[in-house]
Amino acid sequence: MTSRTGFFVLSAVLLLVSLICVLEGVQLVATGKPLGIGIGACAFVIPLIGLWFLRQTVRFGRDSERLGRELEAEGGLPVDELRRTSGGRIDRASADAVFARRKAEAETDPTDWRNFFRLAVAYADAGDVPRARKAMQHAIKLHDAGTPAARP
Q: How far is Cα 108 from Cα 38, in angstroms, rounded to an integer?
């Protein structure tokens, strides 16, 4: 299963669970009892939090793809230069070497979103997904802020 398919399946499950939670919340509030009303109110808040996270994830994916398309149009997407094992896995030493180079580029020009986009890809290749996400979020912020380096 691809990550995109998994995302859509989990999103559908989240929406279904949110609907069930709201319906149960309505029934609890309808009891008229203070405890039922309190639990029912919580049942309305939980889906809102889940939907907020879903919205943030969709926005992040959309913005990341937008930056990727723009970088591809400029011819600046990072080239896959990583060595792989016979099983197809990325060689750790190779990923670390590329990561060190990308990090140095980002430190040299910290106002260019392109460097942070490439750094995010290097983090992901090295297996550090949380830092990859932070680097991509920083690239999106730099791009959307309209820094001079963000304009071609």
A: 54
Q: What span, in angstroms and rounded, lies between the C-alpha atoms of 97 and 35?
A: 58
DSSP string, the chain: --HHHHHHHHHHHHHHHHHHHHHHHHHHHHT--HHHHHHHHHHHHHHHHHHHHHHHHHHHHHHHHHHHHHHHHHT-SPP----B-TTSPBPHHHHHHHHHHHHHHHHH-TT-HHHHHHHHHHHHHHT-HHHHHHHHHHHHHHHHHT-GGG--
Q: Is the pTM of this model over 0.70?
A: yes
Task: Report which residue type is found at 148.
Answer: P
User: Dihedral of CA 124/134/66/149: which sign?
Assistant: negative
Q: Burial of 142 by CB count in 10 Å (0-12 exposed, 13-18 middle, 19+ buried)?
A: buried
Which residue in 101, 91, 87, 88 sits closest to 126, CA to CA?
Answer: 91
pLDDT digit string, tens, across residues 37-93: 999 999 999 999 999 999 999 999 999 999 999 999 999 888 888 888 888 888 888
Task: Assess contact for 105 and 88: CB atoms under 8 A.
Answer: no
